Amino acid sequence: KHLNMDEQIQKVQQYLNNDKIVYYINFGGLYFENFHVPELLSVCSRNSIQIQIVEPYFAPILFFISNDLTQELLSQICNQCTQVMYYGQVASISNKIDDEPHPKCKQLIDNFYSEPLTFSMQSNIIGDVFQHETKLHHLSQIQQKSGFIAPKANLSNPQSHLQLIYDLQSDPTIFIFGFRIASTEKPMRKFINDFALPKRKFLGPTSMDNELAMIMCNLAQIKAGDFVYDPFCGTCSILVAATSVGAQCYGGDFDIKILRGKDTTYVDSFNQYKLPIPDLNWQDISKPAIYKKNFFDAIICDPPYMIRAGSRKSSQGKNDKFAQDTEVQTAKELYLQLVKLASQLLRVGGRAVFWLAVPLGDFDESDLIQCEGMKIEWFPLQKLSSKYGRRLICYLKQKEEVGECRYMKEILCFDKIRELVGLE
Ligand SMILES: C[S@@+](CC[C@H](N)C(=O)[O-])C[C@H]1O[C@@H](n2cnc3c(N)ncnc32)[C@H](O)[C@@H]1O
């Protein structure tokens, strides 16, 4: 991480030298760090906005340039990302607080403040605390050095914010002076707070965290009116997120007990948020109840990670038509069935997004099922322990008639995970 930070600063400076507008996003921390870029780029793609990230990216501050962006569009994309905290435009960047501001700083400020506005100036410190006096001292220094003549200060309700960000976690520390455009507003914050699992009416041991469920929906690039299918729906936590963005949802699971619920059911979770109830089927993925080819906009799911027995029996005994056992499947077969199903049911341009348990260490596309016409777009890692984690796999269906789905390797991540957890 430390070696290239100077390189990153230099690149941002070069863009400023060349009169490019450089934007920054603070993702608010290292939490879900590996999902920041995939989520942002997926959200941009859904909004038909092109951005170019200044590489290398070191969380939590990401820099990018774009030709198509206005402040409104920037707010639109940032408000759709789960992890963005605030964002703005860079006026100057350096690795020493005493450095002169970038030569373009004054000009940028003048352009930004073409009309007299009320403003506030604040500092944000990442990774440490600073004395208030020190912050004030730095702020007044940068204000003087940049030749910024304050229009009219208004700290409680300013029309614009100037911001001095210190990223003390990075080595070397970076100092960014910029115009804070906004922090993420209600819709996403509201989803994250109101839809948090502890408040959910119907939950199970493997219900998906609501932020991750929304990251999955964003990687799948779903929008209102899309058809979304979760063939391992369980308590429907992924479908709650998909329905909340206006998708029409379908689900399936082979565990009749989870589909029926007990004191509460999945219906309660949807009623809780006044969302339409999805259409669920009792089914084994190997015999899917829904089979409409080239139809779904997205298949989003969290398959079981290990060898699983057949479906659990219903409590209503032999007379229950749901009582039969389904086949025993290995994770290897199950993933193959999933990718095959996705390659058939997705429309061209549709996406399959699902988790895969993996040992930590080397991993590349050759560890994943390959299928001509199904492009692997992303596979970011979420670490779950010092030995293993899970990757969020995203396939894009590129043509109607796809090739055969197959594994490329003999030893698969499932086998390695089984070894790690002590299974034969
Ligand atoms: C990791 S959980 C998914 C949890 C779900 N995302 C939720 O929010 O509750 C995997 C689910 O897949 C179901 N399942 C396992 N094997 C299956 C199969 N062969 N066909 C259909 N469902 C299966 C399990 O019953 C379980 O509910």
From TrEMBL:
PANTHER family hit by this protein: RNA METHYLASE-RELATED (PTHR13370), TRNA (GUANINE(10)-N2)-METHYLTRANSFERASE HOMOLOG (PTHR13370:SF3)
Name this protein carries in UniProt: Putative RNA methylase
Organism from which the protein derives: Trepomonas sp. PC1
Cited Pfam families: UPF0020
Keyword Transferase: yes
GO molecular function terms noted in the UniProt entry: methyltransferase activity; nucleic acid binding
InterPro entries according to UniProt: DNA_methylase_N6_adenine_CS, RlmKL-like_Mtase, SAM-dependent_MTases_sf
Keyword Signal: no
One Gene Ontology biological process: methylation
Alphabetical UniProt keywords: Methyltransferase, Transferase
